[in-house]
Amino acid sequence: MRKQNIMNRIFRGKGLLLAVVFLISVISVMIISGVGASLRGAELHAVEQEIVVIEEENRKIADELVLQTSLTQVNENVENLNFVKPETLVYIENGSGLQAIGYAR
Q: What CA–CA distances, in Å, run from 19 to 13, 31, 33, 51, 62?
């Protein structure tokens, strides 16, 4: 009987030790997973911020394109470059529709 009590104590001690080791392992894996997830979240946030900046730059470029290709701006550029407005236009049909060719004097 005494031998059996000693064996039970040994197995209980080892079982407790195994349970503690298992618990520490599970907690360690959870901490490592949490740290990894937070790092991936930080990287994702940085990429999203980059996307916002690039989209804003694209909007500015599109606005500038609209401004630079507007008829008002084109007309100002024509005047600044001293282009001469044609007095008459000659229309030539090429089979796919009419094209206007302008010339001065």
A: 10, 18, 21, 48, 64
